[in-house]
Amino acid sequence: MKKSSEPVPQGTGSDGATGEETVIAFSGFSFQYFAQAHPTLHDINLSVRKGEKILIAGPSGSGKSTLGHCLNGLIPFSYRGEVSGSLRIGGRETRELDIFQLSKVVGTVLQDPDGQFVGLTVNEDIAFALENDNVSLGPMRDRVARAAALVGMEDFSISSPYELSGGQKQRTSLAGVLIDDVDILLFDEPLANLDPATGKAAIEIIDDIHHRTGKTVIIIEHRLEDVLHRRVDRIIVMNDGRIVADQCPDDLLSSPVLGEFGIREPLYVTALKYAGVSVTPDMRPSHPEGLVLNGASGELRRWHQSVKPSGAPPPAEPLLELQDLRFSYNGVDPVVDQISFRVDRGELMAIVGRNGAGKSTLSRLICGFEKEDAGRILYAGADIRDLTIKERAEKIGVVMQNPNQMISKPLIFDEIALGLKLRGVGETEIEDRVERVMKVCGLAPFRKWPLSALSFGQKKRVTIASILVLNPEVLILDEPTAGQDLRHYTDIMEFIETINRTGVAIILITHDMHLMLEYATRAVVIAGGKKIADAPPSAVLTDASVIELANLKETSLYRLSQRAGIEDGTGFVQNFINHERGLRIR
Amino acid sequence: MKAKLFSYNYVDTPIHRLSGLTKLAGFLFLTFAVMFSYDLRVVLGVMVFSLWVLKLSKIRFSQIRLMVIYVAVFIVTNAVITFFFSPEEGVKIYGTRHVMVHLFGPYTLTWEQLFYQTTKLFKYASVIPLGITFLLTTNPSEFASALNGVGVPYKAAYAVALTLRYFPDIQREYRNISLSQQARGLDISRKAKFSHRVKNALLIIIPLVFSTLDRVELISNAMDLRGFGKHRTRTWYSRRKFASADFAALAVSALIFVLTILVSVFINRGRFYNPFI
Q1: CATH fold label, A318-555
Q2: pLDDT at A18
């Protein structure tokens, strides 16, 4: 495949000089939502050839999802706005097509595999597009069976969405668009809700379908390193509604573009840069396996020796202790099976594991949302069995993943004050405590704002503030950064670290490996309801058996250390973390 | 997961194997029969039949306990209110007056009223098992295809199916939100004052509505992208082919319906069976 080496191609709209068929051609394309004052997309010029595999990356609000909506017809069908310039798909101007005609050319797999599961069983969901086309039952069954086999879901024909894992749901969605024999497959943040191993498998299956069918593949995603697990032809970087880079992966990773626009580069590339290696395209940095190290190995080893180990941790004082906790929903299958661990005062730790491993159930038990079948939970040495949900909340706060699940008041102040009002705390004390928490949370300037005007990250702060106001000493956060780009992710996590430094112990429930690697000092790994590891993240993410059992993914840093001939891979990863923390704290 | 209010559950029984359309038609036939006839003998007959159907479908009592309680409360309230508003309805209908006992004021219990109200009570009670069986043995998609099969526009039918389909999700969401609000100090127990409880319920409903709206936007996009609403008709993957059992079931329920009409026309000469003459 020909690689474009220019940063931004100019007017490649309809040249067709290469002799390859252009399937998507934006030229001078702009779009503005009716509800917004400024255009979301400015003067987009982009052409995609048949059979190409393209990654569109960019921070939130960069316009990458809007671009996707223009391709699949949701714009202007569901989201109205003003279009100018031209977008041709398969040679036809899209403004002359409706969403139904477009859906026969562009098949879209949306990010939330739960929300897009329309049918009640796998096969019924795959059949949805055919039902809408009035295909009769006989041929429909045949085509469904073929599409299911294509994505390896043939053994789950009558499974309901509740019985499927995130990855299986996503395969089903993929089959649902493949059934129409579309020319272009569009994936809108396919990794957002998947655990690391499932995400890896998803990238593999996308690649596999790409190879087998030769369809054009477009992936919109900000998790660059995970997508690059399999080769892509080009990466388009968007920022502020414009295309700021259109390069092959090796070129892009050697350029400063990613850092400039707030997209996380692969960790092994960051490590190389820390070690003072200048990354060039001929090192082929797009995959840790294909990476040509040569002299860089020496530099990595020198750097590895030079990083000072972090000081000894402060003496630990146990705050929360789980002892042989057991729980099952139906009395037969344990969801939490003999789990014991402790959380120390003021520490920041993570509970990790695949979806359904029991980590959320664990937090529900700690908060008293469910009652354990056996075992004990101790808080500061005392059994909390007899405390109500409300009483526990004054010691242990829990923040749900989606802020919309918690927000119930129109004004920020009222939302944060709610917990105190409900407890009958006096007006002046409420005023004081809310004021203080708002200051800690950086919400003071928004005091009189309506919640509806806030961004996701700000809403998250409000929900955290509304829990913090009750003065808990432990805060449980369920996937605090899900779906956030690097800048917002960093914002949220730095905020959480600030909270942590005030002495509140933090438990992160997550399957985001970056999150645990960068911020947690300890990770408890849960698989099948059992605790399978309790160790620093650097050890967890380099331990093959734990990785396998918990559906995690080995960190690419480990791969890099092995390639550079560094024996103590775990130590290398730890050094990387220490180095990063050093940078952050400065 | 914990028990849900009503959720379809596949068990291999003759009732589950029937097509959704058959079950809907059968349900309608029997309901009309019972609603039409005020003959206690007919009503009891249908009731026995519908309990037999319920038993055939292997529905456990624990699945329907909550629903049965609601329905029982409704029926009893209905009976009491009926009596207090028109204590002489039975007398009017049957044309005779046999006093059982004088209660107080204008209220006298007559055999006619007792008979009338018993008949009415059993009319309700005989439809309930059928409704329960239908709801619990028909999966939402098949239900939609059945509705569409009897002439309901498919978009409306699909809306019904989606509501049933997402019911368990919304219930789970409700539970989660409720718990997290309780952690913030919300008291939804009976200890709180009624006005507080209403206000507090809002604290759960508002987040529920917003998170549900997110879900609705997503699902409607997903459906648009896969061509929902393109044509005036659609086919249904989950629609079952009519088997001989379907024809048999339809015939039986139609027969019961016709028999009920015949009993009214030729034996009772009206909708009421009158044992008092």
Answers
A1: Rossmann fold (3.40.50)
A2: 45
Q: Are both B201 and B266 inside the same structural domain?
A: no
Each residue of A275-286: pLDDT tens digit?
Answer: 999 999 999 999
A404 min Cα distance to partner chain B (Å): 6
| pLDDT band for position A312 (cuts 50, 70, 90) | low
Closest-CA distance of chain B to residue A74, Å: 7
Count Cβ–Cβ pairs < 8 Å, chain A vs chain B.
Answer: 152
The answer to whether residues B261 and B155 belong to one domain is no
* Residue B5: predicted pLDDT: 42
The amino acid present at B89, given as its one-letter code, is: E
B230:A108 CB<8 A:
no
Do B225 and B277 fall within a single domain?
no
**End-to-end Cα, chain A, rounded Å:** 44
Asked if A128 and B238 come within 8 Å (Cβ–Cβ), the reply is no
Same domain, B62 and B168: no
| pLDDT over 60 (residue A4) | no
Token pair of A552 as six digits: 């995690």
Instruction: Enumerate the residues of chain A whose CB falls inside 8 A of the CB of residue B237.
Output: 119, 123-124, 127-128, 130-131, 137, 140-141, 144
Which pLDDT value is given to residue A232? 95
Domain ranges in chain A are 266-306+556-586, 318-555
Mutation to test the A interface, candidates B170, B176, B180, B218, most A Cβ within 10 Å: B180
pLDDT band at A586 (very low <50, low <70, confident <90, very high): low
* Residue B232 forms contact with A (CB below 8 Å): no
B122 and B20 within one domain: yes
8 A C-beta contact, residue A456 and residue A484: yes
Instruction: State which of B222, B237, B252 marks the end of a domain.
Output: B237
Distance, CA of A109 to CA of A192 (rounded, Å): 12
Rounded distance between C-alpha atoms, residue A28 and residue A448, angstroms: 41
The residue with tokens 């395969």 is A171
Chain A CB within 8 Å of residue B240 CB: no
Model confidence pLDDT, tens digit, residues A365-396:
999 988 999 999 999 999 999 888 888 988 99
DSSP strand E in A242-333: where?
242-247, 318-328
Q: Which of A115, A134, A402 sits opposite B231 (nearest CB)?
A: A134
| Residue A46, φ and ψ in degrees, nearest 5 | -160, 135
The parts of chain B modelled with pLDDT lower than 70 are 1-8, 188-192
In chain A, how long is the greatest CA-to-CA distance?
A: 76
**What per-residue confidence (pLDDT) applies to A358?**
84
Residues of chain A found within 8 Å of residue B226, distances taken between Cβ atoms: 103, 118, 128-129, 132, 176-177
- Partner-chain residue, chosen from A118, A131, A404, that has the shortest CB–CB distance to B210: A404
Q: So what's the pLDDT on residue B190?
A: 63
pLDDT in tens, A437-477: 888 888 888 877 888 778 777 888 899 999 989 989 999 99
The pLDDT of residue B242 is 82
In a shared domain, residues B117 and B244: yes
User: What is the residue-averaged pLDDT of chain B?
Assistant: 86
Considering only the beta carbons, identify the residue of B162, B204, B231 that sits closest to A132: B231
How close does chain A come to B31, measured CA to CA in Å? 28
Please name the residue ranges forming H helices in chain B: 14-17, 20-36, 40-56, 61-85, 89-94, 111-137, 140-149, 154-183, 194-225, 244-262
Give the pLDDT of residue A123: 92
Looking at CA atoms only, how far is residue A393 from chain B in angstroms? 5
Average of pLDDT values for A71-96?
91
**Reported pTM:** 0.83
Dihedral angle sign, alpha carbons of residues A406, A408, A414, A418:
negative
Query: Measured between CB atoms, which of B140, B215, B230 is closest to A132?
Result: B230
Same-domain status, B36 and B133? yes
Q: How many domains does chain B have?
A: 2
**Residue B247 and residue B233 share a domain:** no
Q: Does the beta-carbon distance from B207 to A120 stay under 8 Å? A: no
Around Cβ A204, how many Cβ atoms within 10 Å? 12
Contact flag A408-B207 (C-beta cutoff 8 Å): yes
Q: What is the pLDDT averaged over residues A399-415?
A: 87
Query: Which of A406, A466, A470 to mutate to probe the B interface, most B CBs <10 Å?
Result: A406
Domain hosting B271: range is 1-139+240-277
